[in-house]
Design a protein that fits this description.
Elements lengths: L3 E6 L5 E5 L6 E3 L10 H12 L9 E6 L9 H20 L4 E4 L1 H8 L15 H12 L18 H16 L2
Parallel strand pairs: 1-4, 4-5
Antiparallel strand pairs: 1-2, 2-3
């Protein structure tokens, strides 16, 4: 049976993507009414995969970014990211789901290897643009918009990154 990879892009605009030929599960990061991670929903999502009667925990692998402080972000943004990071790791541990934390530069180096560098108007690297190009190359028919906004035509950055994190896992983890 093929291993299933679950990519999680951390952040309020993050997302969760399951790469499984039998399941096309995608969701934006579950948040509560105050905009914080809804840990109960996250645990329910991850439990769905862990508790399937025909699968063992070794058939799943969760991939998420290794958190590093964002120098230009506010203290509250960094705190929110740290909270999500810890909660995701704790859910994986409590559910006995194998997981890998990967630095952004590592997964981006692998996934962007054949995508030419892009620059924003201010001259900084456009990693979101490169990520979108890579997902469109790898999964041309995959829906990239927020499932909660069916009329949206704008790709959701969190979903794009979650897809690439899961694909990174598929390529790197045996």
């Amino acid at each position: 049976m093929e291993k299933i990879f679950i990519g999680i892009d951390i952040g309020k605009d993050g997302a969760i993507k399951v790469l499984d030929p039998k399941d096309n599960f995608t969701c934006v990061m579950p948040l509560d009414s105050e905009g914080a991670l809804d840990i109960d929903i996250l645990k329910t999502i991850l439990s769905t995969y862990r508790l399937e009667s025909l699968r063992s925990p070794n058939e799943y692998h969760v991939i998420f970014e290794k958190l590093t402080p964002l120098h230009l972000a506010s203290k509250s943004s960094n705190w929110s990211l740290a909270h999500q990071y810890g909660a995701i790791e704790a859910c994986c541990i409590s559910l006995s789901l194998p997981y890998t934390k990967v630095p952004p530069k590592e997964w981006q180096a692998m996934m962007f290897s054949n995508i030419a560098p892009l620059r924003k108007k201010d001259g900084t690297s456009d990693t979101k643009g490169r990520a979108l190009l890579k997902v469109q190359e790898l999964f041309p028919s995959m829906k990239l918009t927020d499932p909660n906004k069916p009329k949206s035509k704008v790709p959701h950055n969190g979903i794009v990154d979650a897809i690439l994190l899961a694909e990174y896992g598929r390529r790197k983890i045996k």
